[in-house]
Amino acid sequence: MSALHLVRHGQAAFGTENYDQLTPLGIEQCAQLARHWAGLKRPEPLLFTGRLVRQRDSAEAFARSLGEVTGHRPAVSLVDDLEEYDHATLLREYAIRYREDTDLAALNRDHRAFHLLIRQALERWAAGDLRNFEPYGAFRDRCATALRQLMEQVGRGKTALVFGSAGSLAAAIQPILGLGDWDLLRLKLNFFNTGVTRVLFNRTGAAVVESINALPHLEQPGLAELITQR
Asked: Are residues 152 and 127 part of one domain?
């Protein structure tokens, strides 16, 4: 069997003008994942990332830290179609249609209000009610196709890490899980930064999700402060 470890990027800059960048905490989360990987004596993985800055920088932070421990830094390969949906545009489209009185700027200062509104917007997106935004079905299909192509690229008996985002990685495994659109989006709302989803597959393309959103590298004494979702 081959294995893909799908990793959500490290903590990004929520509440700033440019969300698509890692915080120092996000870099440390990725570094700790690499130290944990090396500590388990796992073989050097093939390493992939989506094209967003926070995805790429997460992969590079992992590669750099793994190299510091093992003496060999793995190369990072870019993959297409694992880009996350644009949550700012999603919220704007939802507000225009359903909540015109919403102060979108204030959401950057209130995690709870953001979570409640993004949940409502995602439900409408799954239902196909946001007409000026990438349809959820198209988003799901491009992410799932990217995952299938990665399986073919990784090949038999290999192990790979893939850095993406909560939505794109969840959508990629949706056909394997057999979940409906809204059920899948509700699941992704609980993804942690650097949470790891492990997919096993064989040379025929048959796949199973062995674990979802796991944090063995952070659920250790003295590391609880590294666990984040935003």
From this structure: no
